[in-house]
Write a structure and sequence with these properties.
Helices cover 41% and strands 18% of the residues. By secondary structure, it is of the alpha/beta class. It has 2 domains: 209 residues, Rossmann fold (3-Layer(aba) Sandwich), CATH 3.40.50.720; 87 residues, UDP-galactose 4-epimerase, domain 1, CATH 3.90.25. Strand 2, helix 2 and strand 3 form a beta-alpha-beta unit.
Length: 334
Amino acid sequence: MKRVLITGATGMVGSHLVDYLLNNTDHEIFAMIRWRSSFDNLQHLSNIINSGSRIKLLYGDLTDEQSLRSVVEDSTPDYVFHLAAESFPQTSFSAPIHTFDVNISGTFRLLESVRTLAPNASVHVCSSSEVFGKVPREYVPIKENTPFHPASPYAISKVGTDLIGKYFAEAYGLKTVITRMFTHTGPRRGDVFAESSFAKQLALIEIGAIEPIVRVGNLNSMRTFADVRDAVHAYYLALKADLPPGSTFNIGGNHSCTVGEMLDHLVGISSITKIQIVEDDSRMRPVDADLQIPDVSAFVRATGWEPKISFDQTMQELLNYWRIKVREQGQIQR
């Protein structure tokens, strides 16, 4: 039985990866969490976790090297999915040093622990499409060799994450695969991200908790959307494909639209007949990565992956997720 270590297991992506592995493999899963992590995204798996039959929780933090060594020693993984990160670009403008420590130094600490304690493990390093930043139109669709032009401290940190993944492959032969996933969303998406914030606001409007006003940032930014469940399938294939160490791929969905068009779609599937859209300066980035359209052909050739879940299904299930959350728990608008 293979042993899998997932960092960031309580996040949207990490929790969906846990679901995928439970449903499609017999692997033993070690979920790295921080002591203060919310278990909301794993709540549906509480019986399995409590039984200890397939999932074991390990406490670790990317800012603490000794904790990472303990996690790797306890899990002795065959596969590592490194998903933990400070992941919100907007927040990185106000907390850049912490973002760098978690995403750059934290990745180095983790890979060094794997190199010394589980050197035969295959490691997925989750970079981001944000490394490409503000891309000139002539570089679209974005290929793996498109020059980096990071547009936020978060994006800069992911450039570091990206390069560290390749460095450990070249310097030590660690079996890393680096992915630059473009926008991916769905149920459990945090409300700090545009599409999830919109869905949450609409859910609050539907029950009369707030006025029919949706607060927005840059609606002209172009994004290519994928479903998070397609994303975790891609990550699994990336490690199962036995690719050369240091392989790097762009991954993304097949539906491209502006943020404004995405909002229009959400409004169209809501029960709201009329809303007011208000531009909120706090949602604007100083520099925006506003043309995020990938060329995923290299990854498709390498793994045979293709997205299965439609944009409409993703948006519908994201809105339904927030409808349940606001009715059952109550939520503060954000």
